[in-house]
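Following up on my earlier thread - several people asked me to post the actual chain instead of describing it. Fair enough. Here it is, all 480 residues.
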Amino acid sequence: MIFLPASSGTCTSALGHLRAAERLRARHATMNRRVALSAGAAGMFSGLSFSPTWAGDAVAVPSQVPGFGKAKRCLLLFMWGGPSQLDTFDPKPNAPSEVRGEFGAIPTATPGLQICEHFRNLAPLTNLVTVIRSLNHDDPAHLSSAHTAMTGQLPPVNKSDDEPPSRDDSPQLGALLSKFRDVPLGLPASVTMPWKTFHPAAPGGESPGQSAGWLGPVADPMLVTGDPNLSNWSVPALQLLDGLDTQRLDHRRALLASIDRQQQALTDLATLGMTTQQEQAFRLLSSHQIRNAFDLSAEDPATRDRYGRNIHGQCVLLARRLLEHGVPFVSVNWHNDGQNFWDTHGNNFKRLKHDLIPPSDQALAAVLTDLQDRGMLEDTLVVWVGEFGRRPQITTSNAGREHHPFCYSGLMAGGGIKGGSIYGASDEIAKFPSDNPMSPRDLVATMLHALGVPSGTTLNDFTGRPRGLYGGNPVLPLFG
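Reply from S.P.:
Thanks for posting it. Predicted structure:
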């Protein structure tokens, strides 16, 4: 299923937002200017794209700065739980067995680069990616470190699995990017799927840093939930209610326009904002192009098989479709598989070998291949990363690996990033970086740089206070 987050939490479809808007406007026909402005800022249509404060193509790209503005769109593959660096992209075949683990290392298309033997699909494609082996920070908590990974900023409360999301959070990168991109009318500026990451041990569960935070609810990413691999999966927000055909939808539009003309008490600003929101919702419900973007049945069955007939593979395929249709940012969070995701405290090797690496490897290879074949990889930034890594020493009692933020790995590809490259290095057991340490704040700053967001730019939060967007520094050697 899919829903568009609303500040009230009650409207779960575009049509619901329309009806709520109609009720609100009828009820407040005589409201004064102050109340009207408050209603205009209520964010009923969070997740839909509105007029940006700055369009990326309106700013001159400084050609002398490597990589700036090379990416038009971004796919974030967030491996929730913290993948082991030793068992993915930084194997240590010469380390002691209690560190090395059960997996072997295989050569890749990149000279001198070995990765885990179970990334068989990715290995011949590493000429398209840069492997980063020196990511690091000092926060072992899932929730607060996830905030940093998704926003590039430290959370309001660091090193905490107890602090729930709030509007004091920094904006998720896709929500931030929505302020810098023009989007085809009706399409969301940012999409998250197939869920908001949760941790069962945390109060309330939901990780901070997944909303628009201090930008306000109007910029919240659109959340697409459920399993696209299921035959009966659908997108309820794109479905008209029973008995409401497009002719009746047009009638509703005309009726709403009539109501608009009677709302002289509303200010021009509030009226413009509400009309834009309503028009976006009508487009979402009635546009064949928008429906097609979400229609996985339009894909050849062989293509769907190539991505993997599982929830992660089909989400990545849907993400590729959305990027092709003009959505600037899509985040695919590793789904709730009922076993703590990539958080492999126990049965690390069994979980990785059977449940985690194969679908991740298959989908990553498929989307890189498709983007390359379609001529899109050059201006599409792809990032594969978690919130931290795993401790080198294996827990002997249950063959697990514990949290380890002090050194971990990730991948970047496309959008001006070098292919066939390794950035940074770890020590002999992947416990600490030994060369070119890189923080998650630097990683997100590099993403912003590639996406053409100038480092000196500020945006006002919902109180009018200006906020800086960069929490780290772009790593320019990553660009070719």
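The radius of gyration is 23 Å. That should answer part of your original question.
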